[in-house]
Fold each of these.
Amino acid sequence: MLAWAKRFGPARCKITRVPDDWRPTGATEDAAAEDLLAWLSNAGFVVASEKYSERNFGNRSVELVKGKVQARVVRERGQWWLEVGRADGEDDLFDPALWLSFQRRGPDVMEPNTIAADTEALKTLLPEIEEAVANNAVDWQRLRRLRAERSARRLGFQG
């Protein structure tokens, strides 16, 4: 018998029926990421590279390109990330929340979004991002600075 069962006994362990449409968060995020990849493909992006490692927690990285714009969808240790930027920039990929702060000069989102929230933001922002990248109208230094400032705040280095 398990230690917790000995301690709490069967009377304290209530099992309830799980709804048929319920999926663990990881499965929900995985489905949302697949929906994102399908949406990107339908929007004209093509896969430039894809890596997968079952041995390393199922980590996956998919890089897609459309014209001068690149999108990177990454699964690392069960969490999904989306970054978008210029295809020719080595470190010029940024998450949709940062693009939203940059484009609309709105408040920065401190906590990482779900992949579903990032997808919805990208659906709104993509035309603006594509136009800005195509016309070289992006202040990359400001975007990098916003990312660095947010990272420092998340880690508690700034107030």
Note: The chain has one domain: 22-154.
Amino acid sequence: MLTRATALAAVLTLGIVGTAHATYITWEFDGTLQVTTGTPVSPELQSLGVVPGADVHGFFRFQTNTPPLFPGNPYVGNYAGAVDVASITIGNWSLARSIFVPDPTQTVSDLIVTDRLTSEGLGAEQSSIDMLDPTGTFTFSSILALELSTRQPDVFDTTAMLTNPPDLSKLDPFGFDPDSAFGYGTDVALYAENGPGGTATTFRASLTSLMRLAFTPQLAVELPGGIGNVPEPAGGILMALAALASLVATRRC
């Protein structure tokens, strides 16, 4: 099983390679909040407009030359460390890419997985990104997931990361679908929780648009520590964090 520490070591070590020549691409998405499951939405979030029918908007930026964690796998491409900036707003509630709150050394905040079309006729790509909730409603973990699935053979015909988003008309529609890759067709989901045994809510939105931008917008929220602007890649920091992650991974294995 790929633990957070082991994955983090691989993420940061691989992220050092080619950083100076990286190509960054930004995808922007819009949608409508359709359903929430788990713990009912708090009155505070409801006051921010987090109710069914609320507008959903966000983006994430990823590095296209990120190597796969498991090269040679003919069925799945796992690109950890690809995403460096992300934001989502539901109603007037905004979150941004951050750290894994309980233990920053365990952050695996940027994972893109591409599943090539299988014999069962399913192809999919999921972007899984650690986010920070500045309202403090969810203090343990908030995971943004853009979940794209299809039964058409020309969308995910390799395990390579997509650089241009697929046409929504070629993807499975939103809605409960246990036979789709993620169980809900194509959606943008936010999995938020307050730790084992605590409150947990899943927010699911249908997509109305998905496009590639020629620029990266500013974050919609000011995070603790003054992280309010879109950061530039920092190779030196990556190297230091990679060394730390390797040590953590060694101790946890």
Note: The longest strand covers residues 24-38.
Amino acid sequence: MYFKIHNKAPKFTEPLGSELVVGEQPNLEGKPFETFIAQAYWCESELQEEANVIWINQQGLWHHLCFDEDIVFWRIMDEGPKYTPPKEEDIWDFPLEDLNKKHELEGQVLESIEHKITEANASVEFKFSNGLSLKIVSQNDSTKIET
């Protein structure tokens, strides 16, 4: 599945050392997410990444967040994810999980987004008006969600 990427020439910033945030973090604070999805990655029936891609829809605009070790990528996409079940012979799967439902975030306003990049990992933390914090952490080429 391929998507058109709007920010064709991403801006690079250096928050710490040589680690990078590629693209521009969108201004999402002050409003609830209409859709907040984690796209996992399974291979040979084993979970490889709980949050291979994070999809956020706010006011009709799709934001795509992913990691490559200590690099954070933000992109704006034309459309959101569509689950395609694997064929019988496939060894991988990319299921979608609704984080709004799982963490009872319907109508909760996003208060802040914080990037943390260290030698050990990279993370993006989302803090909501109900006090919940969801942190997407990339470490050792695997991404997970912490609450």
Note: The mean pLDDT is 86.
Amino acid sequence: MLAGWLAADPFRLEIRDDPAENLRRAFLVREHDLPTGLAETVGDAAHCLRASLDHFVYAAVDDGDRAACTFPVGRKPDKRTPEQQRKAVEDAMPTASPALKDRLAAMAPYPDGADEWIWSLHQLDIIDKHHALHVVAARNTEMELDLGSLFGALSEELGSAPDLPPLLLRPNDGWLPSDQPEAEVFTAPPEEFDKMSKTRFKIVAVTTSPETLNREPIQTWLHQTYVRLGNLLFDDLAPLA
């Protein structure tokens, strides 16, 4: 679904002159909307991955503690102290093995912690449960633009192609929200703008909430999370249960 949308060139680059400000602007204009159901698919994937953590905890505690057991990760982005993480583990799974509780108490599932990915997964799951997941967007990470072809008419008039140096640009390092028709990605005076022969621009789909997830394509992040979960549950935690 997502690969097909990206392969269909969902955006075009449009160059506009602003004589009043003596600027030339590059805009990314959306040609095709995000696929219907993409947000729901991302939400379903997040929920299934997050639920695997709770299923593990359910299997690791005694029958009498299973009514309210859950994997110990907080909703707030606040950094937990070791004591707070230990208490969260004890509250979530009091009858788990001491070795397993020690391992979970040493984890850091919060922003900028060593296990930030678990917190991000939890937040993405919460968003999908309590709100419509309208957070999928296109992020401009790199742009590939052949300005030589855009100014082909000028080249013909001069009788030769202009000798323009290459340039790699990360415009704004931002994203184009899925409900916005266009976004400005680069602005410069015409004489500077025209010096570029190429800039590279790559469209990827990201989620903008939580903010820890807008650093890389969502499909890449979900795949990495799937691999991390397998390593964590089967190789790291299961032997301790």
Note: The first strand starts at residue 11 and ends at 18.
